[in-house]
């Protein structure tokens, strides 16, 4: 190698190397560190990308940590990547040990805030207990978890809701206790669960970001689902039915000390009043209500919003 090549030095591990020298030896891994051949480097990069893709498909929250700069002696070089999940799990590497403990903490805080961030870390004894002496800069990009729509009941309205959710790119779980209805062939884009309503809630990880739509085939099932859904942290719980049905259902639950009418998450009857009672439009009214709550917007006409702005502007 010529002198010009050796003037560009990067820090890898505890010894300084040059990029050109290590590439020539075929020992740079996917993140730029010593130890892997070029073939292994490509395999590691592809596996990490596949894992990220699958996580996003499942609607799982994840932070992607990338080394954007590395000065002097450091365990990784720019381009190194690592995935960090909300439960603290990590995949890939940006240096191991104290470096990854620092990055993991920052990534989890970034996920809680829902905002990306750039952080810097000095690899010195006083801060990390490391002798490397270098400095690393990381960019942490955040992919928040997707809200999930849980549809209880795979009848006409449930089916329309699930298919509209697919069009809206919502992660959807369809639940029914009938094998002929809880069929993944009918819902290729959804997670389909065939289980009795009495027991299925114990197997579902419903979070405070999720939406529950209760449209089962009978009032007794709706009542079971409503009572159990109220015990979850769901952001929204909608129940289909006429005013008479909802009044009767609430009355039954009140006798057992459950008061859905006092729970602001419960929307019953479900949906916005759009006037058309076809199955497709009922599904549309349900999704319109969910969108309104999800966005925390008024749901008013856009022209009214424009008129209000012009009025305020004078």
- Structural shape: elongated
CATH domain class of the largest domain: Alpha Beta
Instruction: Estimate the mean pLDDT confidence.
Output: 81
CATH topology of the largest domain: Rossmann fold
Which helices and strands, and how do they pair?
Layout: H1 3-6, E1 9-12, E2 15-18, H2 19-25, H3 38-57, E3 62-71, E4 81-84, E5 90-92, H4 97-113, E6 117-122, H5 125-128, E7 135-143, E8 148-152, H6 156-167, E9 171-176, E10 191-194, H7 197-200, E11 211-214, H8 219-229, E12 236-239, H9 243-254, E13 266-267, H10 279-295, H11 302-313
Parallel strand pairs: 8-9, 8-11, 9-10, 11-12, 12-13
Antiparallel strand pairs: 1-2, 3-4, 3-7, 4-5, 6-7
Helix pairs in contact: 6-10, 8-9
Your description of this structure?
The protein has 314 residues and is α/β, with parallel strands linked by helices. The chain has two domains: 3-143, no CATH class; 148-295, NAD(P)-binding Rossmann-like Domain (Rossmann fold), CATH 3.40.50.720. Helix content is 38%, strand content 21%. The chain has helices at 3-6, 19-25, 38-57, 97-113, 125-128, 156-167, 197-200, 219-229, 243-254, 279-295, 302-313, and strands at 9-12, 15-18, 62-71, 81-84, 90-92, 117-122, 135-143, 148-152, 171-176, 191-194, 211-214, 236-239, 266-267. A six-stranded parallel β-sheet has the order 10-9-8-11-12-13, sandwiched between helices. 33% of the residues are buried.
């Amino acid at each position: 190698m010529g002198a010009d090549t050796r003037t560009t030095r990067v820090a890898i591990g505890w010894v300084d190397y040059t990029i050109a020298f290590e590439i020539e030896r075929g020992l740079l891994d996917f993140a730029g560190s010593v130890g892997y051949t070029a073939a292994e480097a490509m395999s590691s990069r592809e596996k990490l990308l596949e894992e990220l893709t699958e996580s996003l498909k499942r609607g799982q929250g994840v932070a992607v940590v990338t080394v954007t700069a590395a000065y002097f002696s450091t365990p990784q070089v720019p381009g190194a990547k690592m995935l960090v999940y909300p439960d603290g799990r990590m995949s890939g590497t940006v240096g191991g040990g104290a470096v990854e403990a620092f990055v993991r903490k920052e990534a989890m805080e970034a996920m809680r805030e829902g905002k990306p961030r750039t952080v810097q870390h000095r690899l010195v004894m006083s801060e990390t207990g490391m002798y490397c002496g270098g400095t690393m800069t990381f960019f942490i990009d955040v992919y928040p978890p997707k809200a999930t729509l849980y549809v209880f009941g795979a009848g006409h309205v449930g089916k329309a809701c699930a298919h509209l959710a697919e069009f809206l790119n919502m992660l959807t779980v369809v639940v029914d206790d009938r094998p002929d209805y809880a069929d993944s062939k009918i819902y290729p884009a959804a997670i389909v669960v065939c289980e009795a309503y009495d027991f299925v809630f114990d197997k579902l990880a419903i979070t405070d970001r999720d939406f529950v739509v209760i449209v089962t085939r009978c009032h007794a099932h709706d009542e079971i689902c409503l009572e159990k859904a109220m015990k979850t942290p769901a952001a929204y719980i909608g129940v289909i039915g006429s005013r008479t049905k909802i009044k009767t259902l609430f009355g039954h639950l009140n006798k057992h000390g459950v008061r859905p009418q006092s729970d602001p998450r419960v929307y019953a009857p479900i949906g916005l009043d759009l006037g058309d009672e076809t199955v497709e439009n009922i599904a549309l009214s349900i999704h319109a209500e969910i969108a309104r709550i999800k966005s925390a917007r008024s749901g008013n006409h856009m022209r009214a919003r424009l008129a209000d702005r012009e009025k305020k502007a004078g």
